[in-house]
Write a structure and sequence with these properties.
There is one protein chain. The chain contains nine helices and ten strands. The chain is of the alpha/beta class. The strands form two sheets. Strands 3-2-1-4-5 form a five-stranded mixed β-sheet. Strands 8-7-6-9-10 form a five-stranded mixed β-sheet, sandwiched between helices. β1 and β2 form a beta hairpin. α2 packs parallel to α4 and α7 packs across α8. The longest helix has 19 residues. It is globular and about 50 Å long.
């Protein structure tokens, strides 16, 4: 990997870290931040650390919290981050459940890499989660029901980038984040929220024409109705291996080299 332009101390630090095959996986959510260390195959080698997402969720507060909570985890050589929004080649484009104005164009990869002393890859959280689940063959969709609604599409295990269905209108009055997210659950109660969840599944299935829909996220456990044959609930731990997949060669095209401080702004992740 080219490291031209980096200070010698930084080059040596990156080389030392790269000798460790373990990967720190961080899931930044609107309600919770979760972290764990996995091996190259994506198997857990630590327990999850879970903490409340601070409010306000400004970039510096989130970065400081991540740096603090991972101190007790096993050593790692690389970092994978799932982020609740659209990620460009080198900056955050949207963060609807954290506060987009503060996050707009924030370089989360570089800021975390500088603080953690390891190369970092950041991708939309639904895609990272889905990379641990959708392996193909065929067309698959991964939905996450949490603070909002995440959605990622996969064809033979490869992700389609840039889809932000949570911000698309579910009704004339609200988008999917508002229609099925945590605030809706608290306002509606279990029974009415389940009716909405059933409606969302049917709508997404009709929209995407996938072979199977996997549902995860914290509120997936609240679903009480019988799922159709083309849908299933997956536990949060299943998606953790997606963080390991971020570092496989087939994903390199979506990330800049660790030495780059700028890049094409047209790529959307």
């Amino acid at each position: 990997m080219m490291r031209a332009g980096l200070p010698q101390a930084r080059i040596l630090a990156l080389e030392d870290m790269s000798a460790n095959p373990n990967i720190l996986c961080v899931d930044i959510g609107g309600t919770l931040i979760k972290a764990a260390t996995v091996d190259e195959a994506g198997s857990l080698i630590s327990d999850f650390i879970t903490t409340q997402t601070p409010k306000p969720s400004t970039p510096q507060v989130i970065v400081d919290l991540v740096v603090d909570v991972v101190k007790t985890l096993p050593a790692f050589g690389r970092v994978s981050v799932g982020f609740p929004g659209v990620i460009g080649r080198n900056h955050v484009m949207t963060a609807p459940n954290l506060g987009t104005p503060q996050w707009l164009e924030f370089d989360l990869e570089r800021n975390l890499s500088d603080r953690l002393g390891a190369p970092v890859r950041v991708l939309n959280d639904a895609i990272v989660y889905g990379l641990g689940i959708a392996k193909g063959p065929g067309r698959e969709c991964v939905l996450t029901f949490g603070t909002g609604m995440g959605c990622a599409l996969f064809v033979n295990g490869s992700a389609f980038f840039g889809l932000e269905l949570g911000q698309h209108k579910a009704t004339e009055e609200c988008n999917y984040d508002q229609f099925i997210g945590q605030a809706a659950f608290l306002a509606l109660g279990l029974e009415a929220w389940n009716e909405r969840a059933k409606q969302v599944l049917s709508s997404v299935y009709a929209l995407t024409n996938v072979d199977h829909i996997y549902v995860g996220g914290g509120n997936s456990r609240r679903m009480t109705f019988s799922l159709p044959r083309w849908a299933s609930v997956v536990p949060p731990s299943v998606g953790i291996s997606g963080g390991a997949r971020l570092w496989r060669p087939d994903m390199d095209q979506w990330f800049r080299e660790a030495s780059e401080m700028s890049g094409a702004r047209t790529e959307v992740r």
